[in-house]
Amino acid sequence: MARRGDHLRSVPLFAACTDRELARIDQSVDELDVVAGTVLTNQGDIGREAFIVVSGTASVVRDGIEVATVGPGAQIGELALLDGGPRSATVTATSDMSLLILSKGAFNGVLDEIPILAHRIAVELARRLRAVEDSTYQ
């Protein structure tokens, strides 16, 4: 995997972070490479980590229906870390993937130290909610 700092800066969530903030995030993440078919999250399970997609794609399935495909720059699993609730979807790698992982403790630490990230995550979650509502009412 290439330099993590470069990957972090390419993630929309982190794009506006300062070099110092990116260094803090870099200290908090681990790297993981997975093969196609690997299940990253199971709907209903308790979330213990969040993922940032560096490369590759994954399918997001809720209640047996594919609701999205995610790729580089996407974050996966942050909702369960924010509210402590169960995973809202099953996410399965559809190609080989390179990921950055934040444990629950590291995730909370980064949000405490870089509060603007909490705002950016809230905006992303609101965007997802609107998309679900729009598809429900059409």
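(the above was protein one; protein two follows)
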Amino acid sequence: MFKDDKYANLRELLLTEVQLRVLKDVREFLNVFHTIQQVVSADKTPTLSTVIPLYEQLIGFLETLKRQKPGISHMIQASIDKLKEYREKSKRSNSYTLAMCK
């Protein structure tokens, strides 16, 4: 379609193969969060006893994905760091102790 001369002005807007590959990697990365969000939202009332183990799973998935997608590893590592920060904040709360005793 874009080979037609009437679309010549749009050719420069086409994504390169590298850009398409990066977008595919980003989509895969974001899908990890979507999947976890779907699991959490399936519960009527997500609780720490559910969410904390999912943090651990999510971090594990992201660690694996980081090795598979070195082109976006910086983005993945930033997410891992933030999840670990939230996990540590959760562990310091009294609610965490109660939730994990269930």
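Reviewer note on protein two: The chain has a mean pLDDT of 85.
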